Amino acid sequence: MALKKLISRKTPAYIPFQSGRFRLSMGIVSLTLDNWLEPDDFFYKELMEKDSLLTSKYDEVFQARGGSQTAQHEVLNLLIDHMNEYHSDLLRFCGGNIFIDKLALSFATEKYRKNPIDLAGRIVQEDLCLMAPGSNGYTLEAASLCFPSRWRLLDKIGRPLIDIHSPVPDYKNKLSRPVDRFFDKLTVEKPVWRVNWSLTDDPDLYQPVRKTGIASIKTINSNNAGDRVFLRCERQTLRRLPKTGWILFTIKTYVDKVSALKLQPQSFLDLATLVRDLSPSMQQYKNIAPYKKALLGYLDQTYQGFELV
Q1: What pLDDT, on the 0 to 100 scale, is given for residue 216?
Q2: Measured between alpha carbons, how far is residue 177 from residues 184, 192, 295 in Å?
Q3: Contact yes or no for 196/233 (Cβ under 8 A)
Q4: For residue range 229-248, what is the model confidence (pLDDT) as tens digits?
Q5: 86-to-3, 106, 108 alpha-carbon distances in Å
Q6: Residue 32 and residue 35: Cα distance in Å, rounded?
Q7: Which has the closest alpha carbon to 120: 162, 69, 159?
Q8: In angstroms, what CA-CA distances link 272 with 25, 64, 118, 209?
Q9: What is the structure's pLDDT at 117?
Q10: From the CA atom positions of the chain, what is the Rg in Å?
Q11: Is residue 144 a contact partner of residue 79, using CB atoms and an 8 Å limit?
């Protein structure tokens, strides 16, 4: 199998609102396993950021419950096999050790025997969440989550899907049952991916809580919103593990200035239409409400400028 080249990250990486209308749905797409992960030209930078977070905020970004070790080992083995087959130019595997030569990092797999998903999260850009079936549906049993989007791993570990998604407006009434059915029916042979999105006034990848204050948000206006508001997209994959039957949920996070949409000018109109279409509760959930007026002013005037050209 030929090695896959590092992806040259597009700006923006994904535009998940091209229809211009909002519909609460899973938005599932079939996934081929050769495209399971998306290492790109931010690979080394983001691995260094993960290494720093796992050193300074370990309990905030890594959690594992007892009884998850077998599935964790399965995840690590699948990731090693995948990276070795498609991206062995990024990592080197030798004698039970993993080397990232460009960063002068090395990991002894034996050191991570108790929690191998900790090691797995250190060698890929994606965050990793391991879900186990049980009497209350699927629960989050282990995770390496260095780049959360306004949620804390300590608040979610051990909880079922419906509790994890409790902040999502209408999730309980409209999505809970379809998501549970989907998880039950997901097969080893048919992994999937989807894109989730939100807007934020903070470009940092590590965002368990809002860091910017009201005073900062008030300085966002229709002239600077394109550079002060960021489109945060998560490429998420779901894959049933062949041995344990648990589900691995991966999250690759991309953050781009809203002004980057200029490469596809129609997207300014689509995003403006979508923002207007969102319910107040969904605007709040997707972090839009505090600067909605400024953002819409920017989107409208920018799109009109393209129309006049």
Answers
A1: 77
A2: 11, 18, 34
A3: yes
A4: 999 999 999 999 999 999 99
A5: 5, 20, 21
A6: 6
A7: 69
A8: 20, 41, 40, 26
A9: 98
A10: 20
A11: no
Asked whether 61 and 26 are in contact (CB, 8 A), the reply is: no
Q: State how far the alpha carbon of 81 is from the alpha carbons of 88, 92, 137, 293, in Å.
A: 10, 12, 29, 48
* Percent residues over pLDDT 70 in the chain: 94
Question: How many C-beta atoms surround the C-beta of residue 62 within 10 A?
Answer: 22
Distance between CA atoms of residues 252 and 42, nearest Å: 11
**Cα(44)–Cα(41) distance, rounded to whole angstroms?**
8
Percent of the chain with pLDDT over 90: 73
pLDDT in tens, 271-308: 999 999 888 888 888 878 889 999 999 999 999 987 65
Element (H, E) at 249: strand 247-257
| pTM above threshold 0.90 | yes
Residue 152, phi then psi, degrees to nearest 5: -105, 130
Mean pLDDT of 99-106: 96
Q: Where are the domains of the chain?
A: 29-308
CA dist., res. 255 & res. 205, Å (int): 8
H/E segment holding residue 70: helix 69-86
Tell me the two tokens of residue 150: 């306004």
